[in-house]
Design a protein that fits this description.
The chain has one domain (39-182, 193-418). It is mainly alpha-helical. It is built from 19 helices and no strands. The chain is globular, with a radius of gyration of 23 Å. Helix content is 79%, strand content 0%. The longest helix has 40 residues, at 379-418. α2 (39-73) packs parallel to α19 and α5 (98-108) packs antiparallel against α19.
Length: 419
Amino acid sequence: MVRLDKLTRSQTSSRRRDLVRLFWTACVLVFVFSMISCPQVVFQGALTGLKTWWNIVFPALLPFFIASELLMSFGVVHFMGVLLEPVMRPLFNVPGAGSFVMAIGYTSGYPIGSMVTARLRAEGLCSRVEAERLMSFTNNSSPLFMLGAVAVGMFNNPATGVIIAGAHYLSNLVLGFILRFYARSERERFPNRCLRKGLLRSALHRMLQVQRQENRPLGKIMGDAVRNAVTNLLNIGGFIILFAVIIQLLFHVGFINTLAGVLGIFLLPLGFSPEILPALGSGFFEMTIGSRLASEAAAPLLQQLVAIGMILAWSGLSVHAQAASMIAETDIRMLPFVISRLAHACLAGIFTYLFCRWRLPAGELAAPALAAGEWQYPVYAGSFKMLLIFFISLAAFILFALLLNLARSIFSSFLKIRI
């Protein structure tokens, strides 16, 4: 009877997988037929995606990808894992190595948080559930994109950048605090050992262990870091171009407007203008195009900013596909990431609304924003500034951990003296 039950479940599972494969096969066939039917639309979409990747994503993320590879190879992530365990575990219920993912995820943008989390899981520095928690609240939009491209380029108003970025980061941190309760009964954990020598000495000892085990010469390490970074960016570029083409085709057949109508069922009763709905429909697939359409919509500035906050937090199916490709060779599940993006979108919309009411005049919020025209993304200069901020963030994390450890030592000594 038990064997029959297992066989029935196996057959049901196999049929479901077959149905999923048939569904994706049908989607691919429709996509190919659409490309043949509308070659001009496909070309324009591919050109838009290529420009976005080459002019924005590639130069913005390449330094961070190379830096993360080098820091993993030289044991800096392992050093931070030991040193910051007393900070990250109580706050977010993730190992100390998660501080590295936080620093790089909050300063560089999608999808590097997923990539580094997958590396931590592959290296055995976190469990599957810890990796899912970490991946869910360390994937952020780039601060350079929010402060430069959106605030200055799209709105010609730097004050909006502070509001969008502040709401974006605060809502993701709140999400991180909430996610510490996700799967708390999980038993798998990778604790840091050798803490009897003291926190700093243990961290240095762990880093030296990794460096001794690294047999590649310096030139090989640097070459592998560059090659892996470029390979990952080529993968990301393919997804960006693919989704840019899909969005153009969906616009052409009117699906985006249909999706906007569906979203209107939920958002119009909340006071959203119908003009902002197509931007949200586009942002469901790709955040850059959705943000640009929201900034150009004939809607009050308050609604434009709330819509952009939600779009950037959701990040679009394009980023979801990039994240899925980064974790494909691990056992990390995508469902917690997708649900957390939805929760992030709701929280970001609420925080953006509150920040707008607090920071901007009421008259300015009620009027539509004046589009800045063709926006330029100052990525070549800005990416290196963000890289500097990234290393400053790492130093701040380490300093905070050392001060916390010193305070604990002093407090423990004081208690012993009193006793």
